[in-house]
Automatic annotation (TrEMBL):
<feature type="transmembrane region" description="Helical">
    <location>
        <begin position="112"/>
        <end position="133"/>
    </location>
</feature>
<keyword id="KW-1133">Transmembrane helix</keyword>
<feature type="transmembrane region" description="Helical">
    <location>
        <begin position="6"/>
        <end position="28"/>
    </location>
</feature>
<dbReference type="Pfam" id="PF01810">
    <property type="entry name" value="LysE"/>
</dbReference>
<keyword id="KW-0472">Membrane</keyword>
<keyword id="KW-1003">Cell membrane</keyword>
<protein>
    <submittedName>
        <fullName>Lysine transporter LysE</fullName>
    </submittedName>
</protein>
<dbReference type="InterPro" id="IPR001123">
    <property type="entry name" value="LeuE-type"/>
</dbReference>
<feature type="transmembrane region" description="Helical">
    <location>
        <begin position="145"/>
        <end position="166"/>
    </location>
</feature>
<feature type="transmembrane region" description="Helical">
    <location>
        <begin position="71"/>
        <end position="91"/>
    </location>
</feature>
<feature type="transmembrane region" description="Helical">
    <location>
        <begin position="40"/>
        <end position="65"/>
    </location>
</feature>
<keyword id="KW-0812">Transmembrane</keyword>
Length: 205
């Protein structure tokens, strides 16, 4: 892969990371309710999930997944239900005026990682993106370990940058709402956003 191709690949992944969808909406909701630090576990989980899909697509296993419509349908519906559940929890979340006190709002760090992983993994559009995207940059039939390592490294950097940008934006919006009433409204807005992400995922079958 040439330098120009590597840069283009990273930029494309970055744009893909910040493109509106269930994952971005879920991340915005978490950032609005818990701040930037609360977003980091979800960012890591979403990145890991995308990298898994990238590796599957690199080995050609994603083509087979296109014929597993029923399986991915179940995964998609389960992911949508999970997002509805998280949105409901945000609606009922107590007011917390600092990031540290709200850290238990949805769960621990590992729960946040798992949430991010499941939200991204439950969207079959992600793996379909990599199916169409990868062959434009590399010959998958001649894929070497070093080439795959480079793709993974570039994807991780681009995904972390893009998702962190979303998290930072949501966190800054959160700081504008410091009163209990504003925080309550923000939690409900974030919950609605999370529920909207679930509806988006459910409708994208």
């Amino acid at each position: 892969m040439s330098f120009e191709s590597a840069v283009t690949f990273a930029l494309a992944i970055f744009v893909f990371a910040i493109t509106p969808g269930p994952g971005v909406f879920a991340l915005l909701a978490r950032g609005m309710s818990q701040g930037f630090r609360g977003c980091l576990p979800m960012v890591v989980g979403m990145t890991v999930s995308d990298v898994v899909y990238l590796i599957l697509a690199s080995f050609g296993l994603a083509a087979l997944a296109q014929h597993w419509g029923e399986v991915f349908g179940v995964i998609r519906v389960a992911g949508a239900i999970y997002l509805f559940y998280l949105g409901w929890k945000l609606w009922r979340a107590p007011v917390a005026l600092d990031d540290a006190s709200s850290s238990s709002e949805i769960g621990s760090v590992w729960q946040g990682v798992l949430q991010g992983f499941l939200i991204s993994a439950s969207n079959p559009k992600v793996i379909l993106f990599y199916i169409a995207f990868l062959p434009t940059f590399i010959d998958l039939g001649q894929l070497s370990a070093s080439s795959l390592s480079l793709l993974v490294a570039l994807a991780v950097i681009a995904l972390l940058a893009g998702l962190s940008l979303i998290a930072t934006s949501a966190s800054r919006a959160r700081r504008l709402f410091r009163s209990p009433g504003a925080q309550r409204g923000l939690n409900r807005g974030a919950g609605s956003l999370m529920i909207g992400a679930g509806a988006w995922l459910a409708a994208k079958g």
